[in-house]
Amino acid sequence: MADISSALFDNRVLPVVLLQKGIIRNVDASKISLNMQVLLKAPKVANKKWYDNKSIRNRLRVCICLVYSRRLTKQLLNNEHQMRALIRSARSAPGVKRIYASLDQLEKNSEITNSEAINLAASKSVDNVRLAVRTEIDKRFISKNGYVSCLITPYLAEEGLLTVTGLSEEKGTLMFPMGDTIIENILQNNNSPRTSMVFTLKETISGYGNAGEVWAGPIHYHKSRGYMAGYRHNPNMPHPTLNAEQVACKKIIDLRQQKEFIAQLKKAESEIDKLTKQYKTESNVFESALSKHKSYFSPITYGRAADNSVNFHFAIDVGNIAKKSAKYSYMYSNKTDLAAAIKIYDVTVWRKRVLQHPVPNALTGIPEFRDEQYANEMEDYVCKLSDGTLQILNTPNLPSYIYNFIGLDKEIADFNAGLYQYKVYVTFMDESVKKISMASKTLDLAAGAYSKYVRAAANTRGFNFSTNTFDTSVVEYLYNSFTDWKNVVSTYLGTIAELFGEEAFRGVSIENLQRNLLSMTDPRSATLGTMREVEGLVQRLSNRLERELNINASIGRSGPAYKRSHHTRTQDGSRDGKSPTPSILRHEFSLAYETQTRNFGLDYISGMSSPENTGLPAVSFAQWNARISSEASYYNNASKNNTTVNSNGYLSPQEVITPDITIPREQATFEAGLPLLRNRLASRIPGNAMASNYDQRNETIRLDLLSLANVSVTPLRKPIGEVLEEKTSCLSLLDSKEIFGKDSKFVFEDRSSLAGCTNPGTGSVVGNDEIKIIGRTDREEQILNVELVDNIINELSTGFKQEAISVPENIAGSLAASDLANNTNISVTADTFDFNIRYNSSMIIEYLSGYASGDNGIQVNAEVWNQLNNNIMRQSQNSNTPLICRMRTTTNVVNIDNPYELAAYNELFIIGVPSYTLLAPPPPPSTYIAALDSRMSDASINKGMINLPIEYTLSEENILNSSTSTSAMATSPVQRSSRPNGSPRMAASNTGNGSRQRGATRVSTRRTTGRGRSGGSGGSGGGGY
């Protein structure tokens, strides 16, 4: 046992009073009860007991004041005159309830113990008397402040005066012998105190004890020196500073919430009973719940890989499936826990060809599409979870009960053009019975171990009925030998939280429950009665779980066959609670995938890594930042520092991929775009062979393009002069502006005058564009490279329409838009290939931020894709959270179609470093029990000193003692006359004459007159114990 400072007990007339325990319970709606155990302690004297002293025995009283205001508590602690007046008067006083105990009551309601060793080093012991007091408090008195303090004071009554107080109420009779008043906080803000304080002496000072000893006497708080011993601070008298350690309050046990908790638990159990009966009478509850028009699947999102295979992503709301399918789903508090109620054995993806895009399924209320060919198409296997070709992507930024699946269809890379629909089969097993079974088993083990602990405590014969506590040696033995008194509380509360959820704790603090239950099991504070009370609570819950398992084991849940649903249906085996069979949930995705021509596309993030067999292509945060930097460099005229520019929200192509060549965007010239233009224009004409003509010879491409415009270019076989000379008169020429318009590229300034018309004898035309062939003889090929042909082809790319920027806001916020706005010299028609790649092919970058909420919570079929921005990018990078991203096309910024439009590669990708799992996440451990266990050492829960009886821990309300100098106290006439020399001795020895002692004094260790503790304020010898 820790050494207690014996100075607290030395040289006193009256015993020291300490509150050992206070138990609060609800009586009814208007009252609470308070059961207190008060210990009276005085030094052990050889061959006699302090309570055998007749001068003490016949007159000893204890006044217990329950005070309902903190302000009044402070006044009473700091005004001895007011405190004495309150004790003396039996009349009711506002804000206070008083309880008086006389010696007769002490004998009837107390237990006398053997000696208690308090300081082995000093060979000091005390004898204890335990006083049991029960009272009731009207809730109206505490409804305003929620505050109750307890002030306990021993005093000597006047001999022979048979009144409640034992004191005369005549004027001038306040100077009765009175011991130290101790304070304990019972309620604050209508809650029992969470912590107490243990004080030890920092220094050795005569009259107080030695450094390191526990100080359980009066204290005060000094602003500069901290906690100090004594009621008041007196700079003229040495008194020690104190070390203060906060520990869990084991004195006050508030069982009001326990009663409310049991009521809430019964309410939760009644709901379980209702559901159990429902399963008895409705065997097809599970089937009907799953077959309702409700989706457990997200839409599917596709991305074309570089090799023309298809990546895809979809999500499954496993928590929602479990809610509707698991037998004990009603025992799970949230969807995250619910996801563990079923075990996913496999998820398999299949594909079939369809004739048209499937319409939205029945979940949206739109009639289902029906077609015989569509329905009878063969399904082909794509991938599955069990062999690793389908994986679960870990998504820390999304709900954990929604599993995100990533798959890859490699075979489709070689398919011809067509539409393909994907279907998923989910095979799962109800595991909820294991949850309640494991919870029951865990609780049974904890209950059994705790029962052994209770039996060991009962068999130690170390329970002291006088103090209603275990002896210190027994406490140390139980602490060193058992942890079950802690484990049972965590397991009990954790099991309830895990199975019954928040409903069982509604309006109840789980922290208070944990602290109070621990006070009932902790050998420092428990009694055999409280130990057994907790044992009964745990056994009751254990029996309830066992009964639940037995009831449901006999309930069959196999019902009528499911109604076949075209889009979502479930097949189920027998569910008898003992040998469940897997269930299969099928879903067809409404969005089909349209295959693309191999080796034709736009690459927006070149060099993106892609797993060989599965997984989405990904870029690290560093690679993404580099990609954004290259985008900024590409747009030279963009305002890089403009806050309106969202550099992370848009991308333009980095490369144009064709079967024979890959064109970097920096080389997107008119010539480089001709093969692609031929292919794209020809593909618009059904059956046109040019769409598959990959001949890259320049002349062939130009001839094909002119052919698509119904234009032919043929060189003259003789000089134009000769042609003109053959005419008998000058050609009648028309101005080309009158035919094509002044803005047409067919209008050539300064080329319309034919000198030969006025001088036909010259044989030539002045200023003509006669082709001069150098090193070539094929004039038919050479003429295809003249400027006139270039202009025709350029006009062909625009459909011979005047191209102009019409909707630049479609890419507002992008670097491309900023560059376009700042580039005043831009010409749309100068090079349509470069313009369309640079400004008309931007993609919006979006990330999966979550799911929309409906009446039933989060709806997985309502994905929320938000545009990526600089803030989100920064947050994800700082938290190292990968993002699922997709590219979304924008509309044209010009008034005509983009002739170079191609499908994108890798439009579904990940920013960051993704992590995958091949199996469904395992059921989470009981986080509730672990969390409760982790708080055991908290000061507000269970922290304490094993070798220190709890009555020596002090209330933090002791700080209400004023730290003023005692010189202020000397101005009180009562206090000035309360310390005559020798008064303690006189008070103890001359009290048999029945007279009221005007010269009597408060018998305490307060240093109000400058005398030492062992001097006149104490008293010793025959007048003492």
Give a quick summary of the entry.
With 1025 residues, this protein is an alpha+beta fold. 28% of the residues lie in helices and 22% in strands.
Description of the structure:
There is one protein chain. This protein starts with 15 loop residues before the first strand and ends in a 36-residue tail after the last helix. Strands 16, 17, 20, 23, 24 and 25 form a 6-stranded antiparallel beta sheet that branches. Strands 27, 28, 31, 32, 33 and 35 form a 6-stranded mixed beta sheet that branches. It has a 5-stranded mixed beta sheet with strand order 5-6-2-1-13. Helix 2 packs across helix 3 (80-88), helix 13 packs antiparallel against helix 14 (510-521) and helix 18 (698-708) crosses helix 23. It is α+β, with helices and mostly antiparallel strands. 28% of the residues lie in helices and 22% in strands.
Strand content: 15-25%
Major sheet description:
6 strands, antiparallel
Q: How far apart, in Å, are the first and last alpha carbons?
A: 25 Å
Provide the residue-averaged pLDDT.
77
Helix amount: 25-40%
Radius of gyration: 46 Å
Q: Using the alpha-carbon principal axes, give the shape.
A: elongated
Which residues form runs of ≥5 with pLDDT under 50? 279-293, 361-371, 555-578, 750-777, 963-1025
